[in-house]
Amino acid sequence: MRHAVEPSEPMDILSGKKLLLGVCGSIAAYKVAQLARDLTLAGARVDVVLTAAAERFVGAATFQALTGRPVLRDMWELPEDGVIGHVSLGAQADAVIVAPATANTIARIAVGLADDLLTTTILAATAPVLIAPAMNPLMYANPATRANIAALRARGYTVLEPEEGRMAEEVSGKGRLPEPATLEGEIRALLGRHSGPLRGQRVVVTAGGTREPIDPVRFVGNRSSGQMGYALAARARDLGASVTLISGPTALPTPAAVNVVQVETALQMRDAVQAACEHADMLIMNAAVADFRPAAAAESKIKKRGDGELILELLPNPDIVAGFAQRRDLFKVGFAAETDELLAHARDKLERKGLDLIVANDAVASIGRPDIALYLVDADGITPLPRQPKAAAAAALLDAIVTRYTRWRTSLPGAS
Ligand code: C5P
Predict the structure, then answer these.
(1) What does the pLDDT read at residue 74?
(2) How far is CA 233 from the centre of its chain?
(3) How far is the CA of 288 from the centre of ligand 1 (A)?
(4) Ligand 1, CB cutoff 6 Å, lining residues
(5) Could you confirm whether 361 is annotated as catalytic?
(6) H/E segment holding residue 159
(7) Cis omega (within 30 of 0) on the bond before 213?
(8) Span 184-193, pLDDT tens digits
(9) Which of 104, 142, 222, 259 does the annotation list as catalytic?
(10) How far out from the chain centre does Cα 383 lie?
(11) pTM of structure
(12) What is the DSSP secondary structure assignment for residue 55, as one 8-state letter?
């Protein structure tokens, strides 16, 4: 049975979102200019509110040019439409972000002050609030700041951990604002947790290839880049899932707001997947697990002996995803990259590995190409996704997985 091509126009979670970005007086404000630009380019409407001290670091003109929106500073300045800004701003936004958040503004929010536009807006906000502290490490470690942050967290605010490292001043410690890409990932996760279709769901994604050691310097491996798995993990985060990404070695940056577990061998991956799946709802097994591993890794580097041949004895690795065949409460997605008889092999693996869904692609037609055509194969039949660039294909694929997962969940015993 073949289905029509699934419509797939993956929407960026930031597209059309109204974000209120409060910027405080810290040198880290320069990073937030980039963040404002990135969020705007992703399709969000970004309204920047500057505290008086923020303007000493980055001027309103910078944010205005980057967001294409008027920057808000003064409580008493009437907007063009005549509506008093502070209450409507916080009530209309999809999310409120304070970055960088200084010790002073954190304290003002914690006690509920409304003595400038930013704190007034936050006091009247109904949207989820994300706070990214940045300050001198001693100020961050001070019990007063610790107590203020604990109070905000207890109230349901998301307060990020600052990063450790060299500050602008001649000190090092914990107090640095995370980089713009990390902040963007945290904002995506916040929006997803609030209203995404996977909110409350725990999703495990595996990515990359495994490396099976021959000796301390050599391994048996494969060409998997991990890109598809990383993109799937980021999309699942954007849709609200709590995501664990179990990755073989790759050259990719780790996605923000995702719990990343780095492994090397198939056996390490199996152990990590088993631990992560204990309380998970979905397993997306995208990793290219080596089918075989050397029977024993040599303890020291194997030396060439004249022209003599080297015979490696290989043992089969356990099939990780097949080990979950009895877990009826876990939605399991596998992958099949084939060179021939694509759909027949995919159907066979679906059954043999006890999967709920398998994603098939023609290995020859996708390796080294920027685009990919995917087929979803499950008990209902085959659904092709249109050939598209790999990043868009990953997002479209995750959306198609979510549709099936949602249907599957309602069919579980005890589902309401
Ligand atoms: O059998 P094959 O390797 O083609 O199956 C691919 C699917 O099975 C992928 O989802 C892959 O991650 C998974 N797999 C596994 N454990 C293995 C080999 C493959 O979970 N040892």
Answers:
(1) 81
(2) 6
(3) 7
(4) 266, 285, 287, 289, 317, 319-321, 334-336, 349
(5) no
(6) strand 158-159
(7) no
(8) 999 999 999 9
(9) 222
(10) 26
(11) 0.94
(12) G
